[in-house]
User: Fold these one by one.
Assistant:
Number 1:
Amino acid sequence: MLEHGGRLRAAAHRYAIPVPQWLDLSTGINPNGWPVPAIPERVWQQLPEDEDELIATAQSYYQAPALLPVAGSQAAIQMLPDLRPTCQVGILSPGYAEHAAAWSRAGHILQPLRSEQIDQQIDHLDVLLLINPNNPTGECFCREQLLLWRQKLANRGGWLIVDEAFIDSAPEESLALESTLPGLIVLRSLGKFFGLAGARVGFVLAEASFLKVLKERLGPWALSGPARWIASQALQDRRWQQQARQQLNQQRLQLNQLLQGMGLKPTGGSALFQWVVTPAAKKIHHQLAQLGILTRLFQEPSSLRFGLPADRAALSRLQDALQQIQQEVSLP
């Protein structure tokens, strides 16, 4: 299995620091997520029902004509490669590693790509898989370009898969409204913007006929009843969503400014994380961990992803830690 952020207990064990004492910046999850209320008892006592309000609520939030709830977008990531015969798959690199792992396990031929190479290679691909904004680089793709690539792929039965796990802060950039176009598959998740990673709720947006095939493969009760109820409530809470977008933008700017001030100018990022490419990434990661601050380390390229500190106290703790290790890691 691949390494991911959020493995706090493993870090606590390795560095002998109790879990409550850590500042976990290793994920791109909103640290001030949607406040989950008490779940009604009936939700626990009944089997999940497709006829509840979740699908209609999600269609309204995403502005999507058709969608399928899944157990986090990870469920779709693992299933999609099984729905095509062996083919040529272009995948943006670096990117969320589970995509490449899933298509590789299914026997497909992977071609890692940089964004500037896509136009040259698109005619040789059966599937193009992008994350928008990309994780961890934060690179974004405009709607017009994505739709052009979708058309070229669809003309020969290909797919454009767009993982929009981090797009909720800028929903106007989503392809959700166009997601019923042939050959377009859009993945969404409640884990990042809503901070509900533990609920394991995601959605596949695509043509209704494709969703029917995927639903049959997944089987009944892909989501638990409590997860469906929580998702419905969160997707309806427009006031919280508006406030969260404003707050995340402020937190992003604060983190960006802090890192720049410490000589760690972000190479990229999104509303939920900042990405710093540096040869000292491994050493910085280790030094911060010794102080109870967990970041996400990437080997290729040598880089760190910093999630958002939840408040001023957490931001100050990060600043103090970076100042403490500044000389040891030769920061400017």
Number 2:
Amino acid sequence: MALSTKHLLGIKNLTPNDIELIFQTADNFKEVLKRPIKKVPTLRDTTIVNLFYENSTRTRISFELAEKRLGADTINFATSSSSVSKGETLIDTAQNILAMKVDMVVLRHSASGAPHFLSNHINAAIINAGDGTNEHPTQALLDAYSIREKHKSLKGKKVAIIGDIMHSRVALSNIYCLKKMGAEVTVVGPPTLIPKHIESLGVQVTYNLKEALDWCDVANILRIQLERQNMPLFSSLREYALFYGVNKSLLDSLKKEITIMHPGPINRGVELSSDAADSHHSLILQQVENGVAIRMAVLYLLSGKQEV
């Protein structure tokens, strides 16, 4: 089986069958990651460049590890120490890299649509590792995969996405992914951080955190994206934590057990307290572990190779 697309530009471009195929392939790679020798030669002779125009720790390390576990040759491109700092354009950078016979490009960029632009101009598989406020598809895939692993299925599951919905590419990709796989979604946050007309994506909106937690099976808690906000959208982080911060006492007050998630990095004491993040409710470390398997699956499926 193969994906219906040659790139991973966003969840919006995937079918439910594509997502299920990625999950099934990740299941196989999770078995590989449990072996004493955690490498397979599947992408031997494949060259992948990690082209990150924005700072990243978790996503970049996760992709690098996935590539090395698959036996690929990896090039890490840091824009701060490259010709980009001298004004070189994205298209020129990519074409110069491709002249070195690169097969795949993992791109993170501050401009929404950058991976889509690149896919129209170069002959290599493009994987979107986050573009502006648009999408972050592999994060959504690993989030949904982690819910599926914990709750056996996504169909009918109630997921609350809490926090800075307006500036979060993780939120948008999660909404697309969860809705395609049959989950119900409610977004939660201050009115200033909820985009207008988001209900058109088939989600519910509430500004009441307790109401959302009482409703959901899973709460995916997002970081406040201060670096993307060009004006204050709430009075203070302390006020935000008071009304929208999730802590252990709040979780203990619920009439049922729920699962909490966070894509990282966590602003501890703001959107999530340490006692909640480190509690038995948390899937955060499982998300990190599953990220490697999901990214291995995506790289493998886009490479066109036929053996695991």
Number 3:
Amino acid sequence: MLEHGGRLRQAALDYGIAESQWLDLSSGLAPWPFTIPPVPERAWARLPETDDGLEQAACDYYGAPNVLPVPGSQCAIQLLPRLRRSGKVGVLSPCYAEHAESWRRSGHIVREILEQEVDLYLDTLDVLVVVNPNNPTGLSLSPERLLGWHARLALRGGWLVVDEAFMDNTPDLSLAAQSWRTGLIVLRSFGKFFGLAGVRLGFVLADLKLLKLLAEQVGPWAVSGPTRMVGQACLLDTDAHARQRERSELASARLQHLLGQHDLQPQGGCALFQWLITPRAEHLYEFMAQRGILLRLFTSNSSVRFGLPADEADWVKLQAALQAYSLALGKELP
């Protein structure tokens, strides 16, 4: 399995620091989880029902005509490649590594390409996968540009798969409302914006024919009854949506400013994280981990991703560690 953020228990063992003493900035999740509504006993005792209102709540929240709930968007990432014969797949990179890995495992030829290379390779591809906003770079592409790529692919029966896991703060950039188009597949993650990754819920937005094929792969009762209830309640809480957007945007801007103050100016980011390329990425990761702060390290391009601190105590801890890092680095360099 690929490495991911959020492995706090392993970090606690590796560095000998109790889990409760860590500041986990590794996962890119909103650090303020939505309030969980009371879950009645019947949700635990009965098989999940698919006419409980979750799908309609998701359609309303995303502005999509059709949705398929899945047990986390990771499930869809792994299953979608099974719905096509082996072909040529482009993955806009760097991005969430599970995309390329899942298509490779299903026998497809995968080419990881840069943004400026898409137009060069697009007419040779059967599928193009884009994460928008991108993880970890934070790159956001316009709906017009993405729909242009989709149109070229659709002419040959191709797909555009757009992973919008970090889109909740910028719904105007979403292709959700366009997901009725044949060959356009939009993935949405519930856990990140709502801060409830443990719920394991995601949604696939696409035309009904494709959703039916994917549902057969997912199988019955894939999303538990309690998860469906929690998901529906959170999707309908419009006041909480506004609060979450405001505080994540403020925190992300604060984080960008704080890193810049210590000569660690991010090269990208979005409302839930900031991303920094540095030749000393591993050193920075190790330095922070020794002080009980867990970052997300990307060794392939020597970069780190910082998630958002949750409260003032977390900000104080991060600032102190950054100050110590700047001081230590100043002593090392000539």
